[in-house]
Design goal:
Triger factor/SurA peptide-binding fold; three-stranded antiparallel β-sheet; four-stranded antiparallel β-sheet; alpha+beta; about 15% strand; Chitinase A, domain 3; 12 strands
């Protein structure tokens, strides 16, 4: 359904595509495809949006330009109504969105210079060109949320939705599990930490006395797989929440070319060099060393978890409460102790689990708690954990008994889509919409939106 897929194309990418085109070929004179209220939709926006979809590996339907034109008109109406309703979209939110997009593109392309070369303009010009479009996009999204936010679904509607699905079309689900865990990451001994600090001070001395370079040392000794091959280099922003606050605050206290003392962050010890700074954006290099945890520390961690497990089994401490109080797994603080899949559901398939956990679960019954065991996470960090197998479903066809939550979500999304579709159908005639006659001939489904006489 078209109205469930309101225009979501990245307008910043449109800007980049336009910039790239001007460098490689002559651009056909632009034209206005449609006017909605006091806003215009340009042919270049549609063409560049299709190019972006193709560049990102998306599938373009045969009538792709017409589909995007229809979405663009609907998006403009949503945005204009959001302005009428004074929905709050602040300049700060727009700037944060722009900054996030810029960082994402820099990460994909490898550097700010590569981004500016492809765009044919500076970062500031890219942001200036995209700012109004991003604001319009956020307003349209806010209006869409307002329209559907109060839509609710009843059990009767869920059953009716399920009964409409042809029996031979019901999906088949593999076995799904709910797996919860409490994780501890024991700290290395003080002697080992002091040894690592001493090594890092020696690295700093070697760099400052020109015996080697930061880049060479990072490639040789850094334990950060995400930056080691780039000589420890990252592009960072002072306001980006995903970075370790200690790392950020240390980096932004440095002058260009300056190297920090060894500093302890949540992943280990860092040696940081400020390469280049521009306001809240910076290019830095770092060397990460992770003090190794010995069997002695792991053994102490298992003993602590064994005490916690005993309290849980005795009923004097709830599993969720224990996870909130003791777990070192940061995601559990926000989403709870159960492992989640990509859409945030706690029902997961076995392929999302590490092989050691798969072996452990194969010997457990639903409701049981594992003994404390040691493990190594995806970043190579050693820890200990206890695991609860909360539930396990058998492979089955979709049915109301086992899959009510999923079916309810599908039914709710359909109802929201119909609510949005009705709103758009009622609201479109109240706006001035003019479709270019040539565009209307090529896209009859767009011409029907025209209210201009």
């Amino acid at each position: 359904m078209l109205y469930k897929k309101i225009l979501t194309a990245s307008f910043l990418l449109l800007t980049l595509a336009a910039g790239a085109q001007t460098q490689s070929a002559k651009v056909v004179a632009d034209k206005i495809n449609a006017i909605v209220g006091d806003r215009i939709i340009l042919q270049s926006e549609i063409v560049n949006s299709l190019a972006d979809i193709a560049r990102q590996g998306g599938e373009i339907p045969p009538n792709g330009e017409c589909v995007l034109m229809e979405q663009a008109i609907i998006s403009k109406v949503l945005m204009l109504q959001a302005e009428k309703d004074s929905l709050p979209v602040t300049d700060e939110e727009v700037e944060a969105d722009l900054d996030n997009r810029i960082r994402d593109y820099i990460q994909r392309l490898g550097s700010q210079e590569a981004l500016e070369e492809i765009a044919g303009k500076s970062i500031y010009q890219i942001k200036d060109d995209a700012r109004e479009s991003v604001k319009e996009q956020k307003l349209a999204a806010a209006m869409q949320r307002k329209i559907v936010d109060n839509v609710r679904i009843t059990p009767v509607e869920v059953k009716a939705f399920f009964d409409k699905i042809p029996k031979d079309s019901l999906p088949f689900y593999e076995s799904e599990l709910e797996v919860c865990q409490i994780v501890l990451y024991p700290k290395a001994s003080r002697d080992i930490e002091q040894y690592i600090v001493g090594e890092m001070n020696n690295y700093k001395k070697q760099i400052e006395t020109k015996l080697t370079t930061f880049d060479q040392l990072a490639k040789a000794v850094s334990e950060d797989p995400g930056s080691r091959d780039r000589g420890g280099q990252y592009q960072i922003n002072r306001n980006e929440k995903s970075w370790d606050p200690v790392f950020l605050s240390t980096a932004f206290r440095l002058k260009e070319g300056e190297i920090s003392a060894p500093v302890k962050g949540k992943f280990g010890y860092h040696l940081i060099q400020m390469v280049q700074r521009n306001g809240d954006d910076a290019i830095v290099r770092h060397i990460l060393r992770i003090p190794p945890v010995t069997e002695n520390e792991l053994s102490m961690g298992r003993a602590k978890l064994d005490t916690i497990r005993s309290k849980i089994i005795a009923g004097t401490l709830g599993f969720n409460e224990a996870a909130s109080k003791y777990s070192d797994d940061e995601t559990s603080k926000f989403t709870g102790p159960c492992i989640t899949n990509r859409d945030g559901s706690t029902y997961i398939t076995i392929d999302l689990l590490d092989k050691d956990m798969v072996v452990m679960l194969s010997k457990m019954k639903v409701g049981e708690f594992s003994q404390p065991v040691s493990f190594t996470d995806e970043q190579g960090k050693k820890g200990v954990r206890i695991v609860q197998l909360k539930s396990r479903s058998e492979p089955h066809r979709m049915n109301l008994k086992d899959d009510y939550s999923k079916i309810s979500n599908y039914a709710l999304e359909e109802k929201k889509g119909k609510t949005l579709e009705k709103w758009i159908k009622d609201k479109l005639p109240t706006y001035y919409i003019m479709v270019d006659p040539e565009t209307g001939k090529e896209c009859p489904q767009v011409q029907k939106f025209s209210t201009a006489k």
